[in-house]
Amino acid sequence: MAVGNNSNASFYNISNGKICRQFQSATPESKERVNKNGKTVHEMFYDFIDGTIVSIETKESEYGKSWLITLDDGESKQVLQMPFSSGYSSAFLKMLPNVDLLSPVKIIPKLVIEGDKKKTSLFVTQYGSPLKHYYTKDRPNGLPQMKQVKIKGKMTWDDSEMMEFFENMVKTDVVPNLPKGGNRVAVTVHDAVEVGGETNEADDLAF
User: Fold this and answer.
1) Nearest to 55 by CA among 180, 166, 183
2) Tens digits of per-residue pLDDT, 108-121?
3) Residue 201 in domain
4) What is the pTM of this model?
5) Number of domains the chain contains
């Protein structure tokens, strides 16, 4: 898996509990599907993605706001793209303060289907061991709780304050401490790919 340090960088996202890379045309190992917009896409899937985190930023595209996490494995860079608000990004961000930013991590997504619900989770390991959440129900460490709000007569979970807290935490506490000041991969909005595809359930985002 490789990403060059230019606007032609390849992106990876998370789809159905797997690390996914999309291609413009079919490859010998890619799988084909039609996305929700009726476009045929070609994808390859992986169990994990790893490397040292060198950049974390948010970006807007036609698919909405996303997190872009750049990993450097010593030979190349990969950009993992996650929806700004999702079970995957929430789990990653809750563990982020416990990451040694100078050493490689392995990011492993999971998906469990129970009836008609999809429950997403994500694990981060370092030095061969899984990292624990820094922000927990018992010790929120300043993280705002989600709120239940009524939208069109239906109660749903609102994580707006939580995600705003995470974005400020990343900018203030993480980015300044990334290796070499966070070597940004130069990307443009049109490089972004369709991300996610899984709805956020309360079980995904709650502690």
Assistant:
1) 183
2) 999 988 888 888 88
3) no
4) 0.81
5) 1
